[in-house]
Amino acid sequence: MLTKRIIACLDVDDGRVVKGVQFVNLRDAGDPAELAKRHSESGADEIVLLDISAAHERRSTLLDTVRRTAKQLFIPFTVGGGIRTLQEAASVFSAGADKISINSSALADPTLITQIAERFGSQAVVVAIDAKRHNDSWQAFTHGGRVSANRNAVEWALEAESRGAGEILLTSMDRDGTASGFDCDLTRAIADRLHIPVIASGGAGGAPHFVEVFREGHADAALAASIFHYGLSSLGDLKQHLLAQNIPVRWPC
Amino acid sequence: MIAIVDYGAGNLVSVKKALDWLGQDCAITSDPAEVRRARKIVLPGVGHFASTASLAKSGLQAAISDAISRKVPFLGICVGMQWMFSGSEESPETRGLDLFPGTCARFPQTVKSPHVGWNQLEIASTSRLFRGLPPSPFVYFTHSYHAPLNGTTVASCEYGGKFSAAVERDLLFGVQFHPEKSGEIGLRLLANFCAI
Known about the structure:
The structure holds 2 protein chains of 2 kinds. Chain A is an alpha/beta fold. Chain A has 9 helices and 11 strands. Chain B has helices at 13-21, 32-37, 53-58, 60-69, 79-82, 183-195, and strands at residues 2-5, 26-29, 40-43, 74-77, 87-88, 103-106, 115-123, 138-143, 145-146, 153-158, 162-169, 172-175. Chain B has a 9-stranded mixed β-sheet with strand order 2-1-3-4-12-11-10-7-8, with helices on both faces. Chain B is globular.
């Protein structure tokens, strides 16, 4: 049976992880390469590295980080943040990423999805959507949730799929950072309409939230960054909790 | 030297990286002469079955067929495995190598497609590729078409029905999943291939 994926996210600024799991016995808790390897050994099914650096000149730092992280990582590895062109995507792939994640640049130029998919395959293109509730629907936002794209999030997800996206990384701006649980209504609204996998993100605060988003949100995968600070001691504990609730996960890894 | 065949389809870096990690002498190449000289050949591949058409045009197909006839071990990954079959519904006009019988088909409408993520295998105990691995390991898949079960299937997987996740005959091996992305299990499988 296809299992539900648990994805560990590393938010990276100028080559350093700025929030995330604090492992004991790490030589350097801010090093993305070391953290990614540790997450993989703990049972993460995938690693997402999001570059949140504001400055464009830091791109070479990012490529170096991707290269160092990919070198010792043998599970799927997605890189996002500031990828604006096919050429920039190509350089991230050749540094060792398996998939790239695009958000604002895809909204600004939806043909970018098709360009990257045609060259590297749809499986390599993740379209990230930051969604915020507005009355009875959800709107897509860009620039870290600060700017409205004036697009209905469900319609944008459908368009991204039709343009060749391989997966949707769906973040609830309402829940992000609250640790109050994933937005199951939003996740289900998109997961039930699409034929490609949907990764739920934003709001994870404990193992029961993952059960909810798989069972009620119909998510194919769930992503978290800082959750392991609060309440959960390890990815292994989370997976054992999910197995006890009859959610299929890869365990033992 | 292990030749990792580059025919312009997708990303070969991760396969190279895994073989490097295993300490293998390997190179990404699109040169038929280099493929002819290789000790072993790996044909990766993601994306569309039609992309394999370039193998015939570039002379790589002839080099691969020649090497296979000289008993050079060959491993096809993902679309690389599908190419070892007669063909695929994804691109009916593109012929496969026909080393294994059958045509690759799309997943039924009852399941999401592509099949993306970690799924569990059922392994035949006779397989050399899976020697020493647990009987039902999890591996990483990402594909929309799949190969049928046949007498050479050494690992099957369930997704909208059972399909061939790995085939093996003599020195010919094919895996639908990505061993280079399947953690420790995948590295052990690649090490088994390298040791053949």
